[in-house]
Amino acid sequence: MPIVVIAGGTSIGLGRSIVQAILQAYPNQEWTPIILSRSPKQPDWLPALDYKPEIKAVDYNDPSSLLSALRGVHTVISVILAIDGTHASSQIALLDAAVQSGCKPFAPSEWACGPKGVLT
């Protein structure tokens, strides 16, 4: 069973939609979704799902945290968004960890955050 990680998957918008789409496309858990989040808190929308994906709290500033979370993962889908100036560094750290852990496809977050997305 391949594992797909959705980084930022606790979001009410795109993250939620991707998690739900995976669960609908693979109702017998042929693919196992895992959500990466900065917080271990369960989102309000998750209890309504029949299958509850695991949520792994990660620190995007800690490579060992990301490597541990991506161990055994096949695919990474990133929908992270940080308007505190850490968006670019978080995305790069996630990509580096995905490469080091042997993930195959990596779908980056391509959502523009404006000038607050990069520390200056």
Walkthrough of the structure:
This protein is α/β, with parallel strands linked by helices. Helices cover 28% and strands 18% of the residues. The chain has three helices and five strands; from the N terminus they run E-H-E-E-H-E-H-E. The chain has helices spanning 14-25, 63-69, 87-101, and strands spanning 3-7, 32-37, 54-57, 75-78, 106-107. A five-stranded parallel beta sheet has the order 3-2-1-4-5, with helices on both faces. Strand 1, helix 1 (14-25) and strand 2 form a beta-alpha-beta unit. Helix 2 (63-69) packs across helix 3. The N and C termini lie far apart (42 Å). The mean pLDDT is 87.
Write the SSE topology:
Layout (H helix, E strand, L loop, with lengths): L2 E5 L6 H12 L6 E6 L16 E4 L5 H7 L5 E4 L8 H15 L4 E2 L13
Parallel strand pairs: 1-2, 1-4, 2-3, 4-5
Helix pairs in contact: 2-3
